[in-house]
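Hi, here's the filled form for the chain we discussed.

Project: internal
Contact: R.S.
Residues: 149
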Amino acid sequence: MTHHYQARMRAALYIREEFGPSSSVEAQQAALRDFVQQHHPGWRIVGTYYDTTPGNEALSRRPGLRSALRAATAGEFDVLIAPELNRINRRMDYFSDLAQKFDAVSVALLTADSMIDTTTPVGRLLITILASVTTYERLPEQERAAREA
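And the returned structure, exactly as it came back:
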């Protein structure tokens, strides 16, 4: 990854639908557009990708994320922005693989909630730590579901 954020970058938005009024695709998209306008006014939003599948699903079951990766590979954008890390993926192994795929085509990942930036070594470290925490957070839910089954 060679670029730390430049004044004029092409950004793509990634949204994973959740339930609730503030988590709708439209609400997330509006919030991300506001984020870009407020924090990176020179950036141009060139696409929006979204999924309706759960956050712990593999890339093979996330058509929106697959489309974003294809567009990134084709050089259509420089940075993929998601509202939160857990919108990209809740599983560390899936997230790590995905982050490597975007890194291989020099596309940065950015989360609006924490403004973590994978173009820097510190950003890569922090996003790895947060992905691990996200994985850990879902373990009690899985254990509870197993006990109730």
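Let me know if anything looks off before we file it.
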